[in-house]
Fold this protein.
Amino acid sequence: MTPRLITFDTYGTLIDWDSALRSYIGKLFAAKGVKRDVRRFHENWYYRHALPAVAGPFQLYRPLLEKTMALALSEVGIAAEPKELSALGDVMADAAPFADAVSVLSVLKQHVPLATISNSQQDIIEISARKLGDPFTFIFTGEIVEAYKPHPALFELVLDRAGVQPHEVVHVAQSQYVDLPRSVSMGIPTVWINRQQQQLDPHTPAPTTELPDLHGLPSLLNYPHGNGSQL
């Protein structure tokens, strides 16, 4: 198929937010003289606090980051200063693109409109979009609809604004927890960018196809950038 719109998740798919956050946590631990496994702490924060928070009552993403990180830190006996927590949104905004993101987006935007629908905040993602070369026709975050993926509101909004049907879109995302459960169930052809080489959870609906990174995406969609199978 040739999609009329490609939608992207941003953080974890296009922007290396996990590495940026782990780096910040590592510096925070070092400043406090804490010896703790940063990767394990990060996973605990994400699965025990961040994921439940995005599924709960709506709050802006900066306060969500602050509250969930404060809880995760308090569980291991670490007290954080307000300024250390309020910096988390800026850490997200300052995170760098993955090495493949800018070049692939540059190819794709020559052929089809691109959009990002993100569990973040408008002032954060506007900075990230500039780092990515401003490739998006549509930029929507949970702040606009007051709901976070996997709630359908962001998907419904971008379909409505772009004037397309689910089957005319391709959604590209890394998260099998907030993206795949919604895009697949809505009938949107979905490419899972499995950067972390995860096993698909048995409760997560299977994507249309899986790639280890973005390099093969233009070929998959049959755009000039190498040869490949059409999605």
Q: What stands out?
A: Residues 226-230 have pLDDT under 50 and may be disordered. The chain has eleven helices and six strands. The longest helix spans residues 38-54.
